[in-house]
Amino acid sequence: MSQIKDPSVTSTEVVTVSPELRAGLESELVSDTGSEYKTVSAFWRPLVLLAGWISLVLGVVGIFLPLLPTTPFLLLTATCFAKSSPRFHSWLLNHPKLGPPIRDWQQYHCIVPSTKRLATVLIVLSFSVSIFVVKFLILKVMLLCMMCGLLVFIWRTADGPSD
Questions:
Q1: How far apart are the C-alpha atoms of 28 and 15, rounded to whole Å?
Q2: Which regions of 6-119 does DSSP assign to beta strands (E)?
Q3: At 103, which helix (H) or strand (E)?
Q4: C-alpha 2: how far from chain center
């Protein structure tokens, strides 16, 4: 048995709880602070951190190259940083350009309407070029289906608050 302070009690009362209940309370405290990710072990931390930096570089490069997706790489970066380095995760979430869309997705699972419009234009342009270049009909159909699936996902996702 161990003693922890019950977060629901406003006084300084200490409650004695079993180890199983303590683990449950600690996981609730973690989720209440907004951090849904637990850090990885010391062995995996440098590898996950490296994966985060690689995905950040690919995401930033994707800003300038229309065929390289930016958003999935930035979401992967946020996840890797959350699991390996709270400092870098905080830096990413507070970044003036990269932070708002990541925060919107993590907090509200939404996409800002202006981002939806830009993504739609870029997806239609890049997939149209790919469909035009590809010679086999089956590949053209597959590309068209992927484009439609992406657009349905984007436009069915809730509108974000920070437009």
A1: 16
A2: 14-17, 110-111
A3: helix 99-108
A4: 36
Using DSSP's 3-state secondary structure scheme, residue 119 falls into helix
- Cα 47 versus chain centre, distance: 18
**Alpha carbon 135 to its chain's center:** 35
Is the Cβ–Cβ distance between 45 and 84 less than 8 Å? yes
Residue 82 CB-density burial (10 A; 0-12 exposed, 13-18 middle, 19+ buried): buried
Q: b/e map of 96-134 (b: 16 or more CB within 10 Å)?
A: eebbbbbbbbbeeebbbeebbeebeeebeebbeebeeee
- Asked if residues 78 and 102 have their Cβ atoms less than 8 Å apart, the reply is yes
From residue 2, give the alpha-carbon distance in Å to each of 12, 16, 17, 30: 16, 6, 6, 19
Per-residue pLDDT of the chain (163 residues; tens, 9 = 90+): 444 444 444 444 444 545 554 444 444 333 333 445 577 788 899 999 999 999 999 988 988 876 677 878 888 999 999 999 889 999 999 999 888 888 888 888 888 888 888 889 988 988 999 999 999 999 999 999 999 998 999 899 888 775 5
